């Protein structure tokens, strides 16, 4: 059911600018190819306790590709709770998680509305699956916790003129950021978890510079590569060696299970890197 | 979300189910083999007002219909001035994911429910994964088909409806026909009004009228203990350690694949973890700490609260904690993709449906 309490403008009323393609293909401004090694993630900044009114909060920034020092993805997460459920709700032997992921209207090239659209809801359910495995839910019967992630700036390249259909792949990077920042905020709120869960992305890419030979990179930036064949986002608990959420997308033949396994393994590696940032950040707060 | 609905099973029932599903071979409540689908009734072409439609009814009483409608739409950002004749090259055809719109409607759930959004995102993602589907909707450089897929679950969601919705969508797309194009090049499109001449969206073999390529199917797989179980019913999903939705498509057969074992060549298109409802089930209380069985010092009002932290007692249900080992997940995917396995059987069975 749509929101009927507010007067909203017509959806999609703003049309993003469409730039003309340069007729000469060689002039097209292109992101320089990936300069970091295939097994390195981008610089990440994480800080907990940024929102005093919430029981736990965290802020995450990821450096923009190709421009060291400039941040691309900016995420802020607040955790409210654990608090008792309203009297009208049913008994629950476990804590009830509700996750909200929302892009700020100005976060992406194409403006987003104030209401959550299906992709944001979808990200919310992925995040819920990732966190539910990490939280020790039976320590808080009859209570609920709200986890709200706001994406202040999306991980998009504003230099290239054309939409390249990369949004679908950008979602994976955004989700992995959401998982890491939500995990830090949960730790800040003092909610018991089996381990700190962190997100990582790995992709199978094909670059013309490598004669079209596919290779696996972690923390991929879609605009740095010619074609992304497949990608996976993993939420991983390092001390238990367990995956709480796995999201794979792409096109892979059935006799290529080895590549698939390698892709997931690299996703786990990326998640371990992110986890190091997470543990260091929490350690600073505690120590 | 359909998976997080309260499961009305007691801890003792859950423990019994989990134990019987962990046996080798597992014993399922409805007596199926671990890789057997529920029996189903399917038909296509039930809605004359659509370009393609299908209905599937599972034996447990869940039923879904899918209608596919197509509209001609002007391609955004297409330049009409540059009318080169090279537009006919197949390589130039490029589809966009926004040409397909998929909605899922489940009775009793709000349409902005995140579970419904998750289901429709999953089905759409599998459909668009290889980029070939959107390319089929290309008419010329200025126009394209916009395809609306409306998926309706008619019955209440008695089990997690993913396999049902996916199979119904598969059949509806196989039965979809688009009017034959009469105009040429980049002219305004003009179509043949003879419906009998309309080609199928997924082209068929002339003689056997079997589809040459097929849309993807999404399988629901879960693991309990060491067993892998396909198409779980609601009660089975309530004790799952891990549940995955695996989308597989059929790859085009090349000549050197012929005679290489039986079964089709499959492609892995997408995987998503389904949050199993087992994490929300109530824990059981072992006799050792239950005052009713004479446990000393167990005079608390709520023995469950204290026992939550104690170690696992065999036969007493505890909701699973943490995630799944990477190897278990890999085994689930491997099993779903196996040649001559479940995906193959499902595709074979759907081949048998009369597409009218």
From TrEMBL, chain A:
**InterPro entries per record:** ExoRNase_PH_dom1, ExoRNase_PH_dom2_sf, PNPase/RNase_PH_dom_sf, Ribosomal_Su5_D2-typ_SF, RNase_PH
Q: Where is this region: Disordered?
A: 1-39
Q: Which Gene3D superfamilies match?
A: GHMP Kinase, N-terminal domain
**Which sequence ranges form a coiled-coil region, renumbered to this chain?**
none
The molecular function terms of the Gene Ontology recorded here are: RNA binding
Report keywords, A-Z: Cytoplasm, Exosome, Nucleus, RNA-binding, rRNA processing
Per UniProt, subcellular location reads as: Cytoplasm; Nucleus
Q: Domain Exoribonuclease phosphorolytic: where?
A: 41-191
> An example of a Gene Ontology BP annotation on this entry?
U4 snRNA 3'-end processing
Q: Which GO terms describe its cellular component?
A: cytoplasmic exosome (RNase complex); nuclear exosome (RNase complex); nucleolus
User: Mainly resides where?
Assistant: cytoplasm
Q: Which family does it belong to?
A: Belongs to the RNase PH family.
Q: What is this protein called?
A: 3' exoribonuclease family, domain 1-domain-containing protein
What taxonomic lineage is listed for the species of origin? Eukaryota, Fungi, Dikarya, Ascomycota, Pezizomycotina
From TrEMBL, chain B:
Q: Where's it found, cell-wise?
A: Cytoplasm; Nucleus, Nucleolus
Key words, A-Z: Cytoplasm, Exosome, Ribonucleoprotein, Ribosomal protein
Instruction: From the UniProt entry, list the residue stretches annotated as the region Disordered.
Output: 76-95
GO CC terms of this entry: cytoplasmic exosome (RNase complex); nuclear exosome (RNase complex); nucleolus; ribosome
The record ties this protein, via Gene3D superfamilies, to: GHMP Kinase, N-terminal domain (3.30.230.70)
The superkingdom listed in its UniProt entry is: Eukaryota
Instruction: Please provide, alphabetically and separated by semicolons, the GO molecular function terms listed in this UniProt record.
Output: mRNA 3'-UTR AU-rich region binding
List the GO biological process terms: exonucleolytic trimming to generate mature 3'-end of 5.8S rRNA from tricistronic rRNA transcript (SSU-rRNA, 5.8S rRNA, LSU-rRNA); nuclear mRNA surveillance; nuclear polyadenylation-dependent rRNA catabolic process; rRNA catabolic process; TRAMP-dependent tRNA surveillance pathway; U1 snRNA 3'-end processing; U4 snRNA 3'-end processing; U5 snRNA 3'-end processing
Tell me which SUPFAM superfamilies the record gives. Answer: Ribosomal protein S5 domain 2-like
Family, as annotated: Belongs to the RNase PH family.
- Give the protein's recorded name: Ribosomal RNA-processing protein 42
- UniProt source species: Cercophora newfieldiana
- List the taxonomic lineage: Eukaryota, Fungi, Dikarya, Ascomycota, Pezizomycotina
